[in-house]
């Protein structure tokens, strides 16, 4: 029974150790004493309370063993139960911290009954694998369970293969049951049958035998056909509806001769067949009547037949008509009704057939099986196999013990605490791999099933997330991931961008961004963001202005061309309004003057500052522009929380797992040249620099220098130095 951890009070006697990671206190699991005391740890101090039993970077079989209630979730009580079970079966529970897939036999605790049973089972496994002298058992030994049971007749799974029988008669019957009902795979790898299949087979066999006996007297009522009745019936049933249709049409023409033309195929029907290969168009021909429709018509048996039905009618003539009426050329309606009567009882009996699944064995074989003691024999074999269920369960327990020894400690460091996630050289089990995109590598990538649903919750994390659809080339496999971008900038991150995702197994996937949740990535990005926004806004306005002017030009050109096409009587354009344009130019001049005055005031105020204050003024301007953005980004970056991202994937995270700025840098790597790289700065394809740009910058610098010198009196001092002050005056 799993322990109940709800409402537990923090009264533990064990001395726990905690470390501060990710902004919260995480318990350390350093030794066996910590593991054994895990039931005492207040559940409020666990990093997580539950997680999905799929999609994690840990063996799926281990997760299946942990998911004892098969609800596809791993919960804290199941973790505690697993730890208590495995530490009780190891002589040295500290071996669990080694996370090894190799288990020495002498490490199994044989001081209690379950340990003794597991040790005995482990030795039996090694014996079946021809490793009787081995002192350790590994997960590789248990990788193929069919090898362990390959030479066993009975293995406790309730399935008996052919080799489980003692004699040829029983083996034959097992094969026959498999031929009727299929098979289940035995632990030895061979096909076999279960008790349910045996019960079903004998029940069906009895039903078939009873049905057959009910029709034994029926064959005597159909003397012309005798034992061939079953075969001949197939010919009769194949033609019955078509012959019924023929006689019904003939009766309708007898009722009203006008129907004859309509009930026979119209000429257009044959015209549609023209140009087709009629040898391949049997289905179209089969839809036509069997023969020519006429009042009181008889069915021809040797000539005048629809080509698609000739073979069937010949079979009818040979098997049914000749035994009853001799070698006649035509079949009357009365004769056809007599034939129908002959088959009525037989068809009614066929409709009551039961046990059809065993029919392929034949009534003689079925009667023989029911008369023997086969049911008792097969049931005894199943019981003999099921008697070994405890031993087989012990083998399964050995497998579970090995999986726990290898994987359980890793799971604890991703569930009780998030040690593996915050460690420098390890990864959390929820980290699916690494995404390479836009000159960076994102290590925090999480598998996502429903992107839209996941994004709703994950948006609260404060993390910049790029959702990608990933596909394996050539296989058609597809997965979705959410990649946390915690380094670089977002300038080139956009929908549709492609990258490569490497999963934890080293397989590469083609990744495409399909959704982005925008949040700050770095303080450096926040510094430049106001200028980039202003640049984008200015560029957009220029583009809009240019587009509007281009559209106006095109409109005027088209209008002018239309006016030219109207001829000489077109009204002359209005005269040029000098006053209107003078007003426009005056307004533009005022605007330019105001802007120039403002710029001059700013420059003159800046130049009026002492020289040591000028850098401070520049820094102040930059701080006023970039400071708010940087401050907001800094505060948000310190509050990035992994919990909403994991919760959106089905976890129940029990803490605020922060991703601060230093830790965030470690989760995303940006492109950097190697330390010993040699860089060649010459670019043969670089754009040619225009000298006018340097000249303009030089002139502006000289002008600023001169204005500053004049403002500060440096120029006057220079004149005094050379006795030229009077010249200045």
What would a concise description of this structure say?
The protein is α+β, with helices and mostly antiparallel strands and 729 residues long. The model is unreliable at 6-10 (pLDDT under 50).
Helix content: 40-55%
The portion of residues forming beta strands comes to 5-15%
Briefly note the structural class of the backbone.
alpha+beta
Please report the total strand number as a whole number.
20
Alpha-carbon distance between the two ends: 105 Å
- The assembly state of the depicted protein chains is single chain
The mean pLDDT is: 83
Overall body shape: flat
Unreliable stretches (pLDDT < 50, length at least 5) are: 6-10
Largest sheet: 8 strands, antiparallel
Strand order of the largest sheet: 14-16-15-18-17-12-13-20
Please count the helical segments: 26
Radius of gyration: 46 Å
């Amino acid at each position: 029974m799993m322990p109940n951890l709800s409402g537990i009070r923090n009264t533990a006697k064990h001395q726990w150790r905690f470390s501060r990671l990710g902004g919260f206190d995480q318990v350390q699991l350093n030794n066996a004493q910590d593991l054994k005391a895990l039931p005492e740890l207040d559940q409020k101090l666990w990093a997580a309370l539950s997680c999905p039993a799929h999609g994690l970077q840990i063996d799926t079989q281990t997760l299946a063993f942990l998911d004892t209630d098969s609800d596809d979730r791993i919960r804290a009580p199941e973790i505690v139960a697993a730890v208590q079970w495995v530490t009780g079966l190891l002589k040295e529970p500290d071996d669990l911290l080694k996370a090894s897939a190799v288990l020495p036999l002498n490490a199994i605790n044989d001081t209690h009954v379950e340990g003794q049973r597991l040790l005995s089972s482990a030795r039996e496994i090694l014996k079946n694998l021809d490793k009787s002298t081995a002192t350790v058992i590994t997960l590789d030994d248990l990788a193929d369970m069919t090898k362990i049971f390959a030479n066993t007749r009975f293995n406790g799974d309730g399935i008996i293969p052919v080799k489980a029988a003692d004699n040829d008669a029983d083996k034959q019957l097992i094969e026959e049951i498999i031929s009727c009902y299929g098979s289940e795979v035995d632990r030895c790898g061979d096909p076999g049958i279960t008790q349910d299949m045996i019960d079903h087979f004998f029940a069906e066999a009895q039903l078939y035998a009873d049905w057959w006996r009910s029709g034994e007297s029926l064959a005597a009522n159909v003397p012309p056909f005798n034992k061939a009745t079953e075969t001949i019936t197939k010919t009769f049933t194949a033609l019955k509806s078509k012959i019924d249709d023929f006689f019904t049409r003939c009766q309708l023409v007898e009722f009203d001769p006008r129907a004859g033309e309509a009930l026979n195929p119209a000429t257009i029907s044959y015209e549609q067949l023209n140009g087709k290969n009629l040898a391949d168009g049997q289905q179209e021909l089969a839809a036509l009547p069997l023969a020519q429709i006429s009042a009181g018509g008889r069915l021809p048996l040797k000539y005048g037949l629809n080509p698609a039905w000739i073979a069937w009618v010949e079979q009818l003539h040979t098997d049914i008509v000749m035994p009853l009426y001799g070698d006649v050329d035509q079949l009357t309606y009365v004769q056809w009704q007599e034939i129908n009567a002959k088959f009525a009882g037989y068809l009614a009996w066929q409709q009551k057939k039961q046990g059809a699944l065993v029919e392929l064995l034949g009534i003689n074989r079925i009667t023989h099986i029911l008369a023997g003691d086969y049911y008792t024999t097969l049931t005894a074999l199943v019981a003999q196999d099921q008697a070994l269920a405890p031993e087989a369960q012990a083998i399964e327990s050995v497998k579970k013990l090995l999986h726990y020894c290898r994987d359980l400690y890793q799971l604890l460091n991703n569930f009780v605490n998030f040690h593996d996630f915050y460690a420098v050289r390890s990864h959390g089990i929820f980290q699916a791999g690494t995404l390479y995109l836009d000159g960076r590598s994102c290590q925090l990538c999480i598998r996502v099933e429903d992107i839209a649903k996941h994004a709703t919750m994950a948006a609260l994390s404060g993390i910049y997330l790029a959702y990608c659809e990933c596909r394996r080339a050539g296989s058609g496999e597809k997965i979705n991931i959410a990649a946390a971008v915690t380094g670089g900038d977002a300038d080139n991150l956009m929908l549709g961008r492609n990258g490569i995702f490497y999963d934890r197994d080293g397989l590469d996937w083609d990744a495409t961004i399909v959704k982005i949740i925008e949040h700050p990535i770095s303080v450096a990005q926040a510094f430049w963001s106001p200028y980039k926004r202003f640049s984008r806004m200015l560029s957009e306005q220029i583009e809009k202005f240019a587009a509007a002017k281009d559209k106006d030009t095109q409109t005027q050109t088209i209008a002018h061309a239309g006016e030219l096409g109207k001829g000489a009587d077109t009204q002359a354009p209005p005269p040029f309004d000098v006053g209107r344009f003078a007003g426009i130019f005056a307004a533009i001049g005022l605007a330019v003057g105001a802007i120039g005055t403002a710029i001059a005031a700013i420059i003159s105020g800046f130049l009026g500052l002492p020289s040591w204050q000028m850098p401070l003024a520049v820094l102040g301007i930059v701080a006023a522009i970039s400071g708010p953005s940087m401050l907001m980004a800094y505060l948000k970056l310190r509050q990035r929380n992994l919990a909403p991202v994991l919760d959106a994937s089905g976890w129940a995270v029990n803490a605020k797992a922060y991703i601060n700025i230093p830790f965030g840098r470690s989760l995303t790597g940006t492109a950097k040249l190697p330390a010993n790289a040699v860089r060649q700065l010459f670019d043969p394809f670089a754009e040619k620099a225009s000298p006018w740009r340097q000249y303009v910058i030089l002139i502006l610098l000289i002008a600023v220098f001169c204005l500053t010198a004049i403002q500060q009196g440096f120029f006057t001092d220079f004149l005094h130095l050379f006795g030229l002050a009077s010249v200045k005056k």
